[in-house]
Structures are given as C-alpha cells and as structure tokens.
Amino acid sequence: MNEQQHFDVAVVGATGAVGQQMLKTLEQRDFPIKSLKLLSSKRSAGKQITFKGQSYTVEEATPESFQGVQLALFSAGGSVSKALVPEAIKHGAVCVDNTSAFRMDADVPLVVPEVNESDLRNHQGVIANPNCSTIQMVVALEPIRKKLGLKKVIVSTYQAVSGAGLEAVEEMEKQTRAILDGKEATAEVLPVAKEKRHYQIAFNAIPQIDVFQDNGYTFEEMKMINETKKIMHMPELEVAATCVRLPIETGHSESIYFETEQSGASVKEIQALLSEAPGITLQDNPAKQLYPLVTNAVGKNDVFVGRVRRDLDRDNGYHAWVVSDNLLKGAAWNSVQIAESLIKLNLLNK
Amino acid sequence: MNEQQHFDVAVVGATGAVGQQMLKTLEQRDFPIKSLKLLSSKRSAGKQITFKGQSYTVEEATPESFQGVQLALFSAGGSVSKALVPEAIKHGAVCVDNTSAFRMDADVPLVVPEVNESDLRNHQGVIANPNCSTIQMVVALEPIRKKLGLKKVIVSTYQAVSGAGLEAVEEMEKQTRAILDGKEATAEVLPVAKEKRHYQIAFNAIPQIDVFQDNGYTFEEMKMINETKKIMHMPELEVAATCVRLPIETGHSESIYFETEQSGASVKEIQALLSEAPGITLQDNPAKQLYPLVTNAVGKNDVFVGRVRRDLDRDNGYHAWVVSDNLLKGAAWNSVQIAESLIKLNLLNK
User: What pLDDT is recorded for position A21?
Assistant: First the structure.
C-alpha cells in the first residue's frame, strides 16, 4: 500500500446495513483517507455518524456531491448507482459499486481480489463488487480451479436476512417475538419488498431471493450463475444455483457440489489447497465436529470452508460447506479490499 | 380398507414428538382400532393421554407389553426398537418401525406407499419407515423416475429441529428468546444430544445431523443415499446429500438437482407428472410467487413440490424445491399409511 498518499473518499448509502459495515471496515483497516463524505438518500440526510471519533453529518447524494472525490464506494441500491456513478466518474472519481447495476457490463471489471485482481487494470471509472453469495463461492473454488480445473458447480444457499437490508432484520425479529408469544406475525418486507406477496421469514425457509426471471430462476440465482463465469473468465463453466432466505440475521452458508477437470484428487489434497489460499479459513475436522458455522463467521473477513468430501459416485466430484459474513466479504470488506488493490496497483489516479 | 375388522394396536414412544403425531393421525384417519396400548420408557410411564375422548395411561414398554397386539407402531429410538421389535414379533404383532434400526436389513421392507407399497408383501414381521428427509424426496422423484428414468440426485436439505425431538424444539425456543433479549444462549441438545460439542441453533445453520461416518458424510446423509436406492430398487442410482439443521420448528425443505435417463422433457411435462401423482401437491407458479413453504406445509400429509426448472447446462437436468411436514409424511403419517396398506393388502394377519 502507498504509505504517503491519502485520498478523498465518499461512501454512498452510509446509513444502510452495508454502508455501516464499510465505515467500520475503513476504520479497522486504517484506510488512507484525506477527506470523508457520507452520502445517502434525502430521507436519511442530516443523520450524524461517528468515524474515528469524529462526527460527520450525512448529506443527500447529488451529482455535485462528487466534486473533489477520488474514491466513491456505492451501496445504496441499483437505481442510485445508475444515476450517480456516471456523475462521480465525470468528476474524476473511481467508483466501487456494490449493486448489480453494472456487474454484467462488458467493460466493467467484476472483481474479487483473491480471484481476479488484475481485471482492475481495465477499469473505466467503475469496478463492480459481485453479489454476496457469489463472492464467498468463488473465493472457495478458486484455489481448486487453479490446480485441478473446474467443470461444474451446483450450489444451494442458506442466506441471512441482512442481505435484504436493516428493514428485513427488523421484520424477522418482530415476527420471531410475535410467534414466541403466540401472536400472529405479519410480513411486509421479505422476500422482496417491492413484490406483491410477502411471507413470514421467522421459523421458515423462503426459496425466493430477488425477483423471478422468465426461465424460472430468481435474479439472485442468475447473478450467482453469470457472475461466477465472468469473475473466473469461464463462460463454459456449468453453474446452477438455488437461493434460499432463512431466519438468520447475518452470515450466508452454501452447500456446494463441484466437479473438477482432473479426477481423483483426495480430500486431503483439496484441504491443502484451501488452507494455503488467501482469504480462506479451513475448518474441517468431522471427528471433532469442526465445520463452518454462521455464529463463528460473523464479524470476520474470511471465507470459512469445511465438510470437504468426495462424491460417492464421481471421481471428480466433491462437496463442501462454505460460510461467510455477507456484509463483510460479501459486501463491505470486498469493496474496501478492491479499493486497497486499486491503491496498490496505482489505479486510483489513472 | 377392510370395513369390518378392527385391530389391537400398540404405539411405542407415545409421549414423543412423533408418537403424539401418530395418535393424532390414527384419530383423524379413524383407524380401525379394537384396543389401544400406549407404551413408553419407564421415565414417561404413568402419563395420561387422551385418544378419541378416552383417557389412556402410558405404560412402560416391556417384552410382555405385546401380548395380544396385532400392530405395533414404534417410534422410541433405535435401541428400543432393536430390543423390543423381536419380542413384539414373537407375540404375533406386525411392527412398523420409525427408527433406523432395521431399515437397511435385506429382509426388512423399507416402504413409502406411493413408491413401493408392494414390498410390504415380503415382510417378516417388521416394516421399516424411512428417514423423514428420504421420504419426501422419493415421493417427489418417483413420478419422474417412472416416466423419464432417473440417473443422478444431489440434495441439500433445510431440516427442522423437531426431527431431533421435543427437547431440541425447547432448546431452540429458549435460545431464540435469550438472543432477542440480548442474553447468552446455551446449547446442550443440538446438533446431536450424545455428541461432545453442542452448537446454538437459533439464527444459525448447522451442517451436521446425526453422527459423522468415516467417509466424511453424516449418518443422516448416508441414510438419504442408501435408503433412496433401496426404496426405488436402484442400487446404481447416483445420490449425494448434504443435511443441514435450521431454526425451524417443523417442516423439512429440500433443494434437489436430478438428472433423468430421458433427455429434453419440458418443465410443463414434469409439472404434469407431479400434479397427477399421489401424495403430491404441486405449488409452482413463479409469476404469482407460488412455491412450497414450511409455514404452509405443516399439519398436512402431502409432499409439496415447486420451483421446477431446467438445468441451464444439461438437457436431462432439473431443479426442484420440496417441502413436507417431517413429523407427518416424514414419520407418523407414513407409518399409519403403511399400516393402512397392510390392512388393504390383507398382510396384518399373515
């Protein structure tokens, strides 16, 4: 990291679930900030937020907000990014966008530093941060792909409500209390706030995250499929996903089946690849009941991998259980990590 | 059903989570009972249980309890079944056993009536009721297998705590209240009561159900794999499972990927097969956000299937979401259904 230069930074969506984690992460990483602007919707403007002991007033994000900004971290929804990222770029800022607005654009790098950091070199002012459930999966699969190749991936997710924002977390807690007290639970937010029907998430499992596409897959599932291929530069990779929302506050889990190009690697070989890879903590000892758990992963930056075992039918098939904090590696930490890589590669001033 | 004959029935494990559902189901089905014996461990003996408005005293199950019993429904744990099923058979009873004690014995039929009712004809005094998570999967897959053949199944489960008994349900509720009140949660029951380590289930996902085997799979996962092959008479079927416990009281969900022998069937064709099959309710309309949910399935006997969609890479690959009440079709209802089939096929007095 450049030890001298400090940067003018803006955080867009500073009051949201991810925005708050971004500020915490910038603080923890001692990110080289010269000036900090906290931006939000009109509704949240005026709020006070403390960063490194200093109080900041949240301002409404407008095209003019980006004057003098070198780095803008966006996490305020796709429509905000679509409207304001181009404005920020006009003002010379480099944007790291945590929404799906630009992820699949051919000229926008979609980056998980452990996998494709060098794609940052092609940025045109905006770098997309992948979907939370995609990030933890590609971090876990990359060391295996590098050594053994990768042919097929089938993932079923176990996703936390904080991925749908603070309102969803509040809804879950309210419903849970109501049910424990024998009262009726009402649903207004999940599975998708803007959709017609809402279902109870407390003590339930909802197989819908984001809206349905014409092919019967949800947008969340298609994000995992398409983003994985793009990040890994493998349009030919077979990927399938089923995404499910669960009554967990924070922390996504994934049951992943994958087939490698090369056959016959042992579980020990796979475990060795994982334990040496960046950003991964291997937690895999069935005899000691050691495996990744949401309750251990929350608040940490790593991706936790365990329950690695061979498929009983195919010589190139394996199963694994992958857990990570969806607000950190799945969002805030990956965004800040991208920013750190931009500085390291001297790409923030180009 | 035989309209005249009534039977002397015993329920072993009458005070447990499944035993209570068995009694409710026998009542609802107006099962032809001449006499009813409620049996349990010494600890629960003496309790009073009401059945069809009549009060019964629960008795300790001993070898002598089965004198005069024609049908014995067992759901009191594997060790009880191992000890007492042979005694019940000596007394002439036909036993339907809801534990894993005899499931894989070559001379014991393992039966899901919608799939292999005719296997009942080979019984030698005991019929095994499969594992809850197996039952709902084979019910959903059977109509597809019949028409299109079946090559490969990969399932990830989303299982409720009631499958681990009433103590597990109580533990989850206690932990949930504690966490909502900002207190510490303690764990003593889940994932497996007799294991060394226990983990919080509230707001968590535990990728361990039952104990680990030497191959890295849990016993629950191996049950799904081996039982599916046995019930479907397909030792060559490729089956893989990852079983996960979740903070849901009752109702198991399953994300199932399957490959058929015959390629190219449309989603509509698969849906038609499912909607005509016995024991299945098809709930599959993404445009209307209609898909199976635990909260709708609990208290019902059917297996609910939805989110049927084609794999995007393989012409014979499909994905589906399957939900059922683990205490009913997964246990009590399937056992009573087996008993009804035994009467229908005149196999209770053989």
Answer: 95
